[in-house]
Design brief:
Chain lengths: 632, 332
């Protein structure tokens, strides 16, 4: 044995799912190892079998999953001479249960659904101790609090009695970590632990995982499709494609000399800040969109008034009431989701809107669509001939306005009805607004399918028979059905794999160019926004803190928050590691961590927009001069 | 939460007021009233109609006054606990209903407990063994219970128990105990008669309960937090009861609102077929003969129980589910 013993050895593992008349093999002879104290990343797109491998290790395979062959050897550093073959243990039997939660911990992608909503954080974390280490109530409570402190809760005693929905996404994932690590496991399996988190929170959680790894000396099996995360975390990398390992080795080997075409293609499909203007991402598979099919979809451009902004928003504000507290005593607080926001969207441009979850991005888009009513402010839509006050529309006028602004949603699974065929899904908006004869509608649906690169023969299928990327393309086709002027894209690619993401982004770019569309592109991924947007607005605490043309914002970010956001993006490049010192200082969205000229010190009126020229506007104290801001 | 409770209790007052007005309006809008029916019936049977007595009764019960006044008189009585007077039985409503209420509550509670005892284990088994033979078999059985009408089942029971055992299973006790005070003999007699109506009335409830337990639990079983619980090393049983089962109870608690009224009115048809001494047949008879105070007071009792039941289930839900408690009033 070498100096670092292997905590986990997977040898020629084959896993299948029982189907009618046999088994479908999804993991086909995979072998790799996880050395003690090291991080091994399992990289691949969804459906590659990487999650199935982790489920096999934990003994959490779905009911119809079965191990067809191979061994999964787990060597507990406490008993180094007695490796256990996890693949042979009885399903949910006492042996595997004694290891789970105690010697092997696991955290999952979606921290909200992974925690029970009706039990407190403390209750759920303490459960591990009750199961694996019987000690007194007090000592268990103290240990849970200690662990909560270790994962970065500022007030562990208070957090103990809180419910998951009272915490932010980042804190929930920290609670998950505390739960997985409370018994000091030898192996932590992290299945896409930061995919659902914002960049700055992601950087913090990754940093935390590394710190805890050093402190507790555990091995980490990291499952992800984000090569930026891999470059920052992994010692060794295993690339999985269709249930087989295409490439494995140390991180430096793989990033500096990718051998297999699949890994090379993955690296190329990733948007990065170094791309030249006009450079296209190389999708692994082309979407096959037929741009000629777009010709009948084009509408005659409106005459005149081309220079007026398509949509102007002025002083928009919206607040919500939230409740907190116990069973009999509750407080009501008012939270301002959108605070005095003003901006224009020009005809034919793509405006990127960046910010962390909870900063008001989605509320803002809902206000623009009249899905919610603001407390005050105005939204003006210019249809080329006249100005429409969107907030005053009623009845038929509102109905006529609806098709002009359409929306693409984040989750391609839940935004399509599973009970409708693709034909019905794309046709529905046409029917609602009574566009054309039934025959014309059917023809139009066909043209739309071709435009997004899907075969017309698929029209009678249901959404479940499509992949995530294809579903998102169906969403796009549905959106285009009404010939909208403005499309609001709410995180349209954040639920997609890297390879598919490039395909959908390219499609959106092509459609915009061919049909003269205008986008509001909401995302928390700066690299994606950089690729698609012409201008970018950065939103924090419901206010736009900085807005600038794309190249200016990336070359010369002025606001502290924008700078923090950019630092937090993990690059798939070993030579540009995350600057963790800068991130570890606390939440980037907390104004206390901003430079003094950007803080409002409790008085929102004390900061105002300052024009730096070339359309670059930043929210700062008026006393600070332009020159100083640009110099900082 | 306290404010919420007070508000909910206060809302009950106008709700019940409106309900009582509706009940009264519907019942007094019939073209004839009890006294007309009585006169007609007596004439049809060739009896002499004592008009003076009829007029006296009409006056006594306020039938010579406008309906609005009569309504407030009735409601005023209800508030004081006076449920009015039954024409049919010539007794205060309270005495007519008297014993029957307790028998009804006994029967209904036993039925509900029976339903839960049978439905929960079967529902849990069906959900955890989805698509197994056991699941199919038990679900089919539940569906049959749901599909067969109560009264038909009661008739079948009556026929076969008479045919095979020479037993009469009607009633809730041996006839000799009807008006006797409570004794050990009466108690055992009730118990030995009780199980048959319990099974008959309970089958349909069990059938639908199995289906809801199964459906609700199945939905929860596939949630991510179940996998998390398993990854901690909890045994399958503890995972099941601490997490998905607890979550699936929400539907069950929100059902309490409809359980309370059914406690005093369950299974009228079966009660008639089996001649049970419960309140069900009484209500039906009262509605037929337009014995309006008996029927009206009874319906008011049902509505009050419904409103209280809904309140109880809402408060219980808020107590059990922190999401409802804390996120409830947030505007989306």
């Amino acid at each position: 044995m070498s100096a670092t013993p292997d905590i986990l050895r997977v040898e020629d593992l084959r896993v299948g799912f029982a189907m009618q008349g046999g088994a479908a093999e999804v993991v086909k002879g995979v072998s790799f190892r996880v050395p003690a104290g090291k991080t091994v990343a399992l990289v691949g797109e969804s459906g590659s079998g990487k999650t199935v491998i982790s489920q096999t290790v934990m003994g959490l395979l779905p009911r119809n999953g079965l191990v067809l062959g191979g061994r999964v050897l787990f060597t507990d550093p406490k008993t180094p001479d007695a490796p256990v073959d996890l693949a042979t243990l009885v399903r949910d039997g006492p042996e595997i249960r004694a290891l789970r939660g105690s010697r092997m911990g696991m955290i999952f992608q979606e921290p909200m659904s992974s925690l029970s909503p009706v039990h407190t954080i403390g209750n759920q974390i303490r459960e591990n101790l009750i199961l694996h280490r019987q000690t007194s109530r007090e000592s268990m409570r103290d240990e849970v609090r200690h662990m909560l402190k270790l994962v970065g809760f500022k007030d562990p005693a208070r957090a103990y009695g809180m419910y998951p929905f009272e915490l932010s996404g980042g804190l929930r994932q920290r609670a998950m970590l505390a739960m997985a690590l409370i018994c000091r496991p030898a192996l932590l399996i992290a299945d896409e632990p930061t995919t659902a988190l914002d960049v700055t929170i992601q950087a913090q959680v990754l940093n935390l995982m590394r710190d805890l790894q050093a402190e507790l000396g555990m091995a980490i099996l990291l499952i992800t499709h984000d090569l930026g995360v891999v470059a920052n975390m992994a010692d060794e990398v295993v690339v999985v494609y269709h249930g087989e390992i295409t490439e494995a080795g140390t991180a430096s080997d793989l990033f500096r000399r990718p051998g297999h075409p699949y890994l090379k293609a993955l690296l190329k499909a990733l948007p990065s800040f170094d791309m030249k203007p006009g450079e296209r991402l190389v999708a692994l598979r082309d979407s096959g969109a037929d741009l000629h099919a777009l010709v009948p979809l084009r509408k005659a451009g409106p005459a005149g008034a081309q220079d007026a902004p398509l949509l102007s928003i002025r002083n928009l504000r919206k607040s919500f009431t939230i409740k907190s507290g116990g069973f009999l005593t509750s407080r009501r607080d008012s939270v301002v989701a959108v605070d005095d926001v003003s901006f224009d969207i020009r005809r034919g441009e793509c405006l990127g809107l960046v910010g962390e979850s909870g900063c008001g991005k989605t509320s803002l888009s809902k206000l623009m669509m009249r899905a919610m009513t603001p407390d005050r402010g105005s939204v003006t839509f210019n249809d080329g001939t006249r100005e429409i006050d969107v907030l005053k529309l009623k009845g038929a006028a509102l109905r006529d306005f609806r098709p002009r602004v359409q929306m693409i949603f984040q989750d391609p699974v839940s935004s399509l009805s599973p009970r409708m065929t693709v034909m019905n899904i794309i046709r529905e908006p046409l029917e609602i607004h009574g566009v054309g004869t039934p025959k014309e509608r059917t023809e139009r649906v066909g043209a739309l399918m071709a435009a997004v690169g899907l075969d017309r023969r698929f029209l009678n299928r249901y959404p479940h028979s499509f992949s995530g990327g294809q579903r998102q393309r169906i969403s796009i086709a549905r959106t285009l059905a009404m010939n909208p002027d403005l499309i609001i894209c709410d995180e349209p690619v954040s639920a997609l794999d890297v390879s598919v993401q490039a395909q959908v982004l390219n499609l959106l770019k092509d459609l915009k160019r061919e049909l003269g569309l205008t986008y509001l592109f909401i995302s928390h991924n700066l690299a994606v926004v950089d690729y698609i947007a012409d201008r970018i607005a950065v939103l924090a605490h419901g206010r736009i803190v900085e807005i600038a043309p794309r190249h200016l914002l990336f070359s010369r970010p002025v606001h502290s928050y924008t700078q923090a956001l950019m630092r937090a993006v993990p690059y798939p490049d070993l030579d540009r590691p995350l600057d963790l010192r800068l991130i570890a200082g606390g939440s980037a969205s907390d104004p206390a961590n901003w430079a003094p000229e950007f803080r409002d010190e409790g008085d929102p009126a004390s900061v105002g927009p300052i024009d730096l020229g070339d359309g670059h506007v930043v929210l700062a104290r008026p006393s600070v001069g332009r020159r100083e801001l640009l110099a900082s | 939460m306290l404010r919420y409770l007070v508000r909910r209790v206060l809302i009950m007052v106008p709700t019940l007021f409106v309900t009582s007005a509706l009940i009264f309006t519907v019942m007094s809008s019939a073209p004839t009233n009890y006294f007309d029916n009585l006169v007609q019936e007596m004439q049809a049977q060739g009896e002499k109609v004592d008009q003076a007595r009829i007029d006296f009764m009409k006056h006594e019960y306020g039938f010579d006054k406008p309906p609005v006044e009569r309504y407030f008189w009735w409601v005023g009585g209800l508030v004081r606990g006076d449920f009015g007077y039954s024409f049919e039985y010539q007794l205060p409503v309270r005495q007519v209903v008297g014993d029957r209420v307790w028998l009804t509550i006994l029967l209904s509670f036993t039925t509900i407990v029976f339903t839960w005892l049978v439905a929960f284990p079967i529902g849990i088994y069906s959900a955890t063994h989805q698509y197994s033979w056991g699941d199919y078999g038990l679900t089919t059985l539940g569906l049959m219970g749901l599909a067969i009408p109560h009264f038909l089942l009661a008739l079948i029971f009556l026929y076969f128990s008479n045919q095979w055992f020479g037993l009469s299973i009607g009633g809730l006790m041996d006839p000799k105990y009807f008006d006797a005070p409570m004794s050990w003999g009466k108690f055992t007699s009730i118990l030995s008669h009780l199980w048959i109506p319990v099974i008959i009335i309970g089958t349909a409830g069990t059938g639908s309960m199995i289906r809801s337990v199964r459906a609700n639990l199945l939905e929860e079983l596939h949630k991510q937090y179940v996998v998390t619980a398993r990854s901690k090393g909890l045994s399958p049983w503890r995972v099941l009861f601490k997490y998905p089962f607890r979550m699936s109870l929400n539907f069950f608690i929100s059902d309490i609102g409809s359980i309370l009224p059914s406690v005093i009115s369950g299974g009228e048809l079966v009660a008639i077929v089996l001649s049970l001494q419960t309140t069900g047949p009484l209500l039906i008879r009262a509605l037929q003969s337009q014995d309006i105070y008996l029927a009206g007071s009874f319906l008011m009792l049902l509505s009050t129980l419904t409103v209280i039941g809904v309140l109880v289930s809402d408060v219980a839900l808020a107590f059990l589910d922190p999401r409802i408690r804390l996120l409830g009033g947030a505007t989306k």
